[in-house]
Amino acid sequence: ENMGKGKVDMEVRADGVALITITNPPVNSLSIPVLLGLKEKYEEAMQRPDVKAIVVTGASGKFSGGFDIGTLGNAKLEGLPNGVDISVGIITQSLEGTQRLPRLVGLSKALEMILLSKPIKSEEASELGLVDAIVPPAELVNTACCWALDIAEFRRPWEASAFEELINSDTAQALIHIFFAQRSTSKVPGVTDIGVKPRKIQKVAVVGGGLMGSGIATALILSGYPVILKEVNDQFLQAGLDRIKANLQSRVKKGKMSQGKFEKTISLVQGVLGYENFRDVDMVIEDRIVGAHFFSPAHVMPLLEIVRAEKTSPQVIIDLMDVGKKIKKTPIVVGNCTGFAVNRMFFPYTQSALLLIDLGLDVYQIDRVITKFGMPMGPFRLADLVGFEVAVATGMQYLEHFPERVYKSLLLPFMMEDKRFGKKLVTCTRITPEKGIFFGMSKLPFSFTDKDIIEMVFFPVVNEACRVLDEGIAVQASDLDIASVMGMGFPTLQVTQKSQCSLIFICILLPTLWLLLA
């Protein structure tokens, strides 16, 4: 068996550098004996107290021609010059060269070097960042030894410093907070800590096949639950079944589901007009015992609000939490109030944006700033998609329950009066100043920066979140953070900033802003 040839020698210089030399003419290739010799000399150097640094070189002015593939058979020896195998391991995957080289020189050049074994000159290697310096041959070893001693003597903990800076950044803290907050949603005092185990839910009924009901049914059958879909007549029932089918077909088109899986999944839903088939179901949505508040589209959005009433049993809550997790939702348990937790917390979001419009700001400017901040879309585009009649109806609910905190905007009633209902009802909604569509705006004698707009829109949300916590609607503050991210698309990286600013806003900025506007 041809194992190759070659040897490795080591000399410890007076300055404490262990100079390891490869000798395997003609190009000092990395044969098996050379690799074993490198390992042996490296281990020896690491054990010697007089060694401060290690430098590897090659005899006769040649570092190494690369891995000796002749040791794997009788194939012709091929290798790259300058011995970069040892430092970046270009030839074999075991030396990680195919992974490291693209990071150094870029994908295009790396592919050229890896696939064609095309040599490059030292000047080009320096420009690419593959080598750090070019020195005369006579000075090469001494220069390398000086560099090695410099590294050993003046160690710069760049990785540790960079990691410390990264781990203490607002971005990292926000991501860490959300990571643990999501897991803490499964801990509900008086529910998950009393030894109650979830019952096995085998079949679920969904009452109503509209946009939300069909989305809920889709989420259930995607997780393997047989579903009974109840509607009031054949037309509505067929429309609901068609929505479910369209939801699944969308996954097929995107390559997320095979046709066979589609057929199997759609067979899990049964449409009915009566309640006769409900006798063997384990859970009904909508049910009056506990609220299961999904977010649209229900088969996509990851949040599930579980709304408990005064007498909801822990068993029912934990059953629904279990189902929520099985259909790939993150459940949070909340109390019952107008809007529950998420919509209640965010109702000032749209209202603050409407106030800015009445103060003379541009709709598109507000949406651009909010989107740039990290939200999936601005408040006006969202209202346009949902439908302005929904926004008006929702606003009336909050006006009834929180009259002292509801801003009565002129814009939405005007849009309704002008029959601009939003994209949900096909009619395109545009607010164009040149057409004079909305003349009720005033112009303040000062301008708003992007930061001002963000604070005006989101700080009232923080304020309302504090009320939600104070009233016991939410179990813990971190639940509201998860609800904001998963239910409203609040940017994860901004979560800690939201928490840090809340006290400042409530104690200082809110009264100041009120006086300014007054």
How would you describe this protein?
The chain is of the alpha/beta class. The protein has three domains: 7-153, 2-enoyl-CoA Hydratase, Chain A, domain 1 (Alpha-Beta Complex); 204-334, NAD(P)-binding Rossmann-like Domain (Rossmann fold, 3-Layer(aba) Sandwich), CATH 3.40.50.720; 342-517, N-(1-d-carboxylethyl)-l-norvaline Dehydrogenase, domain 2 (Orthogonal Bundle). The chain has helices at 32-47, 84-88, 97-105, 107-116, 122-128, 140-153, 158-167, 170-184, 211-222, 234-253, 259-266, 314-326, 342-358, 363-373, 379-386, 388-401, 411-417, 450-470, 477-488, 495-517, and strands spanning 7-12, 17-23, 53-58, 204-207, 227-230, 269-272, 283-285, 290-294, 303-308, 330-334. A four-stranded parallel beta sheet has the order 6-5-4-7, with helices on one face. Helix 12 (314-326) links the parallel strand 9 and strand 10. Helix 8 crosses helix 19 (477-488). The longest helix has 23 residues, at 495-517. The chain is elongated. It starts with 6 loop residues before the first strand and ends with a helix.
Helix content: 40-55%
Question: How many individual helices?
Answer: 20
CATH fold call of the largest domain? N-(1-d-carboxylethyl)-l-norvaline Dehydrogenase, domain 2
The level 1 CATH classification of the largest domain is Mainly Alpha
Number of domains: 3
Give me the secondary-structure category. Answer: alpha/beta
Rounded to an integer in angstroms, the radius of gyration calculated over CA atoms is 34 Å
